[in-house]
Amino acid sequence: MEKPMRKQRQDEEASDEDSGPDERDLNAPPTEEKQLEMLYDPAADDADEKWVQKHLGADIKTDAVLNCPSCFTPLSYACQRHEKFQNQFRAIFVLNCLIDRSTSLIYNEETQEHLSAAPPGTPSDQVYFNVSCAHCGERVGVVDSEEIFVFYNVFPSR
Ligand SMILES: [Zn+2]
Known about the structure:
27% of the residues lie in helices and 32% in strands. By secondary structure, the chain is of the alpha+beta class. It has two domains: 2-40, no CATH class; 65-157, Metal Binding Protein, Guanine Nucleotide Exchange Factor, Chain A, CATH 2.170.150.
């Protein structure tokens, strides 16, 4: 009794595949979401590349060239302007910058309240350090524990 029943079920499934609505869905062009998934390359697991993509987007592009406001030494050629604060920039590739790691600071990017000493026990991912121009010593910004620089005292140019 079992064998004929199983065969009948197979026949039904086979006929469904021939004209069922499911097959049409499978042949439909991929949705936009699917296409985006296909563009993602899981083999690109280089840590630096991922980090750059996470923080700067897929393309490294810059909103400005940042210079020291005092001596005009270039500080970064690849930065992102803050969405709200036009005088604030984020960068990971910097030059001519000195980091003062002797004092841990807390800094609030949203309110731009900055440069108060970090109380003991502050999580390391909330600690910032002063950054100054290596040429003249002007304070130009801060850097966080992930080496993301936040410049708030710079002269932007292109
Ligand atoms: Zn300077």
